[in-house]
Amino acid sequence: MGTTAIVSAILTLLAGIGIFLVACQMMSSNLESASSAKLKSLFAKASKSKLLGVGIGTVGTAAIQSSGATTVMTIGFVNTGIISLTQAATIIYGANIGTTVTAQIVALGMFGGNSISTSIIFSAFAGLGAFLIVFSKKAALKTWGGILAGFGMLFVGLSLMSGSMEDFAALQGVKDFLAGIRNPLLLVLTGAVITAIIQSSSVMTSIALAMCVTGLISLDQGIFLTMGSNIGSCVVAIIAGVTSGINAKRTALIHLLFNCTGVLIFMLAGSLLKLFTSGNLSYGTMFESAFPGAPQTQLAMFHTFFNVITVLIMLPLTGALVSLVCRMIPQKDDSDVEILKLKYIDDNMLRTPPLAVEQTKREILGMAELAMENFDRAVAIITTLDFKERELFDKVEEKINFINRTLVDFVVRLSGRKGLSEHDHIYLSTTYRTVRDVERIGDYAKNIAEYADAMQEAGQHFSDDALYEISQLKILIHQLYDKTCEAYRGELIDALDQANVIEEQIDEFTKMMEANHVTRLSNGNCTPVTGTFYLELSSDSERIADHLINVAKTIRRIKKVSYQS
To answer: Which of 498, 488, 280 is nearest to 369 (CA)?
Structure first.
């Protein structure tokens, strides 16, 4: 084989890797979009059950064909306090099992012989999917077209990689070089480094499968390369964890320690196996006997066996593993320093857009809760002229403003991500106005608190009748808030209708407050200065109600789109 042929083989290998990576991304994003509702409910069920956590990680990763996405999403959940470190650990265990599905699919595509190769049959799905993407007018069909096209492209990339391996296999120099790499540790390190560079254990495993099938490497060599890919896959989690909070860093370390422990156990067991059988028995010979004549199945089955056994070993030790990483990365003594950050989302969740949308809604509802808490504080301050919570009020107002800025920026970036359903796109388009409405609630609460400052300075206070009316107005606004949250959270038209009724009651009540104020002023029961603050409070409260109903009304647009589609 000449230089031209060698260069051609290298370029073919790069082309195959590129198509394989694009196919994985296409399948992942479209599968997320097609199953977004199921994914949201699936990961919301993470509980204290370790087996449930493993199941969630396995099914979730098999569904979206990306252990990296599952791990990064888990890090995001830990970072925002949605799940515990123990729950995160079990989900990561499951992700390692779920990722072996790709290797099984690839192995299946390598069967063929004299008949039409299964790889060619599966590759044809790329064309079918492309037709759906180009000619279908329905978003759901386009999504499924993306899934089929991605699935088919996996095998197009695989065919290119296999073809390049056959070219390399014809080179005696390549055979001699690879035959000389027999040290298990060196093979593991090679697999880890290559996986870390391309950031895909699926690609590394597929390359190893192709090399085994073409006879370029032995099954034992492929096994150790595959074990190394498990360690290299941790780089995605490490990158995500380094830029996040302390629990996110701990989760990334759990992932690394879990995979390294599994590799260490299997390497030691493999060494003992050879030692006690005088080198006659190894993982390779065992799986060759179990699945004769099918090297692709042999390696794919070992990959699954390796991850399942590692999970079974580590599952009872999860508590000890969590304690270890907590000691290795201790909690910093920063209790006196409040760090402003979003509660339910972080940048890691951008890798799983459908779930990020759900968390965005939770963040907005959390922001609304903060705004209403400050409204309560403002009313308490102005009615009692007790300023003991004024400092807390100011801190919460600062946090509301921070969420306003940060959340809008997050939504802008999330809106540009692939894998979102039409419903999610429409929902995100409404969030800009919603976040602004919630921020304005905080602003009007701040106005009320500032009226209290002026009243104290002027030595004024409200009459008993005025205090009673303010308390009744507050009750109505909280009723509206409750119905707004119910409507917004579940996109319930009935709750919106009830919210509209309460909002009208608030309009009528504030008009009555104004009339009662004029009567009290005429009777000399209040002063013009106090009356001014009273009317301003009534007006600002009514505007808070307007902003609350605006939040609830956004569901009309979302539901309209849902009905149309």
So the answer is: 488
